[in-house]
Specification:
Layout: H1 15-39, H2 45-54, H3 56-60, H4 65-83, H5 96-142, H6 148-163, E1 167-172, E2 178-180, H7 189-201, E3 217-224, E4 227-235, H8 245-293, H9 296-311, H10 318-350, E5 358-360, H11 362-376, E6 381-385, E7 393-395, H12 397-413, E8 420-428, E9 431-437, H13 447-450, H14 467-477, E10 481-486, E11 492-499
Parallel strand pairs: 6-8
Antiparallel strand pairs: 1-2, 1-4, 3-4, 5-7, 8-9, 9-11, 10-11
Helix pairs in contact: 1-2, 1-4, 2-4, 2-5, 4-5, 5-6, 5-8, 6-8, 9-10, 10-14, 11-12, 12-14
Length: about 500
């Protein structure tokens, strides 16, 4: 079985593999003897010696030093027995052959040693290549996971496939308890406590360590000792060889990659949370600024007018008292609209706004909005164009009334007195389209999207800048869209699309 980069590189060879190497040694010497016998008498004796020397190579290439040295020794004995007089004995008639035998064995031993080292180097290089490829696959696969448990599950998949043994990973929850990245395996109470210990102390445990070395789990922490993110473990069965330092180092390498991926994910989450908090602070600051200015203005007007009425109750003419009372009413209505908008904006941001949907005609929401706005500002002409066959809407008429009122009021503010504001509606592609257009100066370049942000104001000085943001939130809650653009003939147009459902 081929060694994998996370396998058991230090496992001992079993008896079958050891005897197979010596079988190769005997077979190589036998083949060399047959070849030498065929060439005996036809070539010089030095060439016969080279045949036995070369016979060491196939055994040495297997990376077995012991069988290779045995091949060299058996080759010397076979050459002495079959090709040195007297034949078929180990006696030597010429002592010079002893030097030949010594050189023959030394050359064979040197070849076997060098070849074994070369094979070991090739195996190490291949193991390094497999390790680099596996690390690359693991690092690439981690980028596809965007949440901590997904990262650990992907790491377990890749490491387990390379290891060929069961692998488990645990994420440390805020309470310090292990949260398995996949279906939990059966573990004893002591093994569960061992996982908690690794998460708590940030130290490896299991075979090859000082902490519960008799366990079947080798556990390493994921992360630095002072900031443990989780734990990674490998399970080996009863009777299997205990993993050595190289396996532990490989497992720690995988744990380090998982720690980096978890750190990056948590850093992204923290950055997103920081941005959300900064945005919330910005909205809160703008809200406070709005409350401090826009709420104070109508309150100041109300207090001033009411104080004048009280102080001049006996001296003010009826016309002046009527004018002051009218001012109180107008500022009170302005204050009420501002508070209503703030409440709606808050509910939309919090996701607490609920739609009281019912089947209604467009006029049910449009007519009250137009009546209220025209009563407050009678300086504009409103033209409404509605086809007689418009379908019913399944919507919240109260919130739609708020939207149409804000749009028409916005058109009044940004167009000169005496101009016309058009409200049109039509049906297109399964949607109801409503457009509110004015004859004002139009929208500044690039303001088509910015105007729908909270606290974004146009050229008008009054208002909190919440009306269009509320319109966008209400329409989005209905599943529709809202946009703004400049009309070719001048002025601005705000267009709403609302989905149509099959009516009753």
């Amino acid at each position: 079985m081929n060694e994998l980069w996370l396998g058991w590189p230090d496992r001992p060879r079993d008896a079958a593999e050891g005897w197979a190497g010596y079988g190769w040694a005997v077979g190589s010497v036998l083949a060399s003897t047959i070849l030498a016998a065929l060439l005996h008498g036809r070539v010089a004796e030095a060439n016969l010696v080279m045949i036995y020397v070369l016979g060491v190579l196939p055994v040495a290439l297997r990376g077995d030093a012991g069988p290779a040295l045995a091949t060299a020794l058996l080759g010397v004995l076979a050459y002495d027995f079959f090709f040195v007089t007297p034949f078929f004995t180990f006696e030597v008639s010429d002592t010079q052959y002893l030097f030949t035998f010594l050189v023959m064995w030394l050359v064979g031993a040197t070849i076997s040693t060098l070849t074994a080292r070369l094979s070991a180097g090739i195996a190490t290089a291949r193991q390094g290549e497999r390790r680099a490829r596996a690390l690359y696959e693991l690092s690439r696969s981690l980028w596809t996971a965007r949440e901590p448990l997904g990262i650990l599950a992907e790491g377990v998949r890749v490491i387990g496939a390379e290891l060929g043994h069961p692998v488990e990973a645990w994420l440390r929850d805020p309470a310090g308890e292990p949260l398995p990245a996949g279906p939990p395996r059966a573990m004893s109470a002591s093994e569960h406590e061992l996982v908690r210990w690794v998460l708590r102390e940030g130290q490896p445990a299991g075979p090859g360590t000082h902490n519960l070395p008799g366990s079947h789990w080798l556990l390493v922490p994921i992360g630095a000792p002072d900031q443990v993110r989780g734990a990674l473990g490998i399970l080996f069965g009863e009777g299997e060889a205990t993993p050595g330092p190289e396996t532990r180092a490989a497992l720690e390498t995988g744990a380090n990659l998982l720690a980096l991926a978890l750190d990056q994910t948590l850093a992204r989450e923290e950055a997103a949370a920081a941005l959300a908090q900064a945005d919330a602070e910005r909205v809160r600051s703008a809200m406070l600024a709005t409350v401090s200015h826009d709420l104070r203005t109508p309150l100041t007007g109300i207090v001033g007018a009411a104080s004048s009425l009280v102080a001049g109750a006996e001296t003010l003419t009826p016309a002046v008292r009527r004018e002051l009372a009218q001012g109180v009413v107008e500022e009170s209505e302005r204050l009420a609209r501002l508070v209503t908008n703030l409440l709606h904006a808050t509910r939309l941001d919090a996701g607490a706004a609920t739609l009281a949907r019912e089947w209604c005609a467009l006029e049910d929401a449009l007519a009250p909005a137009l009546a209220r706005v025209e009563a407050e500002d009678g300086r504009h002409l409103v033209q409404v164009v509605l086809p007689p066959d418009l379908p019913l809407l399944h919507a919240d008429p109260v919130l739609l009334e708020l939207v149409f009122g804000n749009l028409v009021e916005n058109a009044f503010k940004h167009s000169p007195a005496g101009t016309r504001v058009e409200v049109r509606a039509w049906q297109a592609a399964g949607q109801l389209v409503v457009e509110v257009a004015d004859d004002g100066p139009g929208l500044p370049a690039g303001a088509e999207v910015r105007l729908f942000e909270k606290f974004a104001r146009g050229s008008a000085s009054r208002g909190a800048g919440l009306g269009l943001a509320i319109c966008r939130g209400v329409i989005a809650a209905h599943g529709g869209t809202i946009g703004a653009s400049n009309r070719p003939t001048g002025g601005a147009a705000f267009r709403i699309t609302l989905p149509l459902e099959e009516g009753p």
